[in-house]
């Protein structure tokens, strides 16, 4: 897991991620006292690493936008509605070439609106905690537990995606 809080770190991570055919995306945001959710973290993973981009730090996110818009890279997201909303409002882009694992799970007969936690358990036999789902993601510094939670939200995506892709074929 890599926490990205400066431009050099972000540029290096994006350079690696831009070479991938498939990436795995999640977001953490704050929505308690705001009409529009405030994007706090963007987690982007490949099969080896999870990159946690702290969007509350002064970063130029143009290269992140480019990856989100790149039709050559498949973006795997779970239950994408809220993620797309907060990305669109905050970054002014709508990610292209998406695979939603919640939709795929329903098509595979796993259940309607199956959560990420259920997919980890049912498909991989892994129990994950969702105890920090409603955390205040604006608070800094981020605790080790919050960072681990954020990383875990993309850590198991490659295996879930592979399993669902197999079941769909």
* N/C terminus separation: 31 Å
Alpha plus pi helix count: 7
Name the strands of the widest sheet in spatial order: 1-4-3-2-5-6
- Which sequence of SSEs, written as H and E, runs from N to C? EHEEEHEHEHHHH
Q: Tell me how many strands there are.
A: 6
The percent range for strand residues is 15-25%
Class based on secondary structure composition and strand pairing: alpha/beta
What keyword list fits this structure?
alpha/beta; six-stranded mixed β-sheet; 6 strands; globular
Characterise the protein shown here.
- The protein is of the alpha/beta class and 169 residues long.
- It has 7 helices and 6 strands; from the N terminus they run βαβββαβαβαααα.
- The protein has a 6-stranded mixed β-sheet with strand order 1-4-3-2-5-6, sandwiched between helices.
- The protein is globular and about 45 Å long.
Can you summarize this structure?
With 169 residues, the protein is an alpha/beta fold. The protein contains seven helices and six strands; from the N terminus they run βαβββαβαβαααα. The radius of gyration is 15 Å and the shape is globular.
Please render the helix and strand layout as text:
Layout: E1 2-4, H1 7-17, E2 22-30, E3 38-45, E4 50-54, H2 62-69, E5 74-77, H3 80-91, E6 98-100, H4 101-107, H5 116-124, H6 144-155, H7 157-168
Parallel strand pairs: 1-4, 2-5, 5-6
Antiparallel strand pairs: 2-3, 3-4
């Amino acid at each position: 897991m890599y926490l990205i809080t400066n431009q050099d770190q972000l540029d290096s991570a994006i350079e690696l991620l831009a070479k991938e055919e498939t990436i795995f995306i999640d977001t953490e945001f704050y929505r308690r006292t705001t009409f529009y959710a405030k994007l706090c973290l963007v987690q982007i993973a490949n099969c080896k690493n999870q990159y946690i981009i702290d969007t509350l730090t002064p970063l130029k996110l143009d290269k992140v936008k480019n990856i989100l818009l790149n039709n050559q890279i498949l973006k795997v997201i779970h239950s994408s509605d809220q993620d797309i909303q907060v990305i669109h409002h905050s970054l002014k882009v709508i990610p292209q070439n998406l695979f939603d694992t919640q939709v795929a799970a329903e098509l595979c007969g796993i259940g309607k609106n199956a959560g990420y936690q259920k997919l980890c358990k049912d498909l991989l036999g892994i129990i994950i905690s969702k105890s920090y789902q409603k955390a205040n993601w604006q608070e800094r510094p981020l605790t080790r537990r919050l960072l681990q939670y954020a990383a875990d939200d993309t850590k198991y995506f490659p295996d879930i995606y592979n399993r669902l892709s197999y079941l769909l074929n």
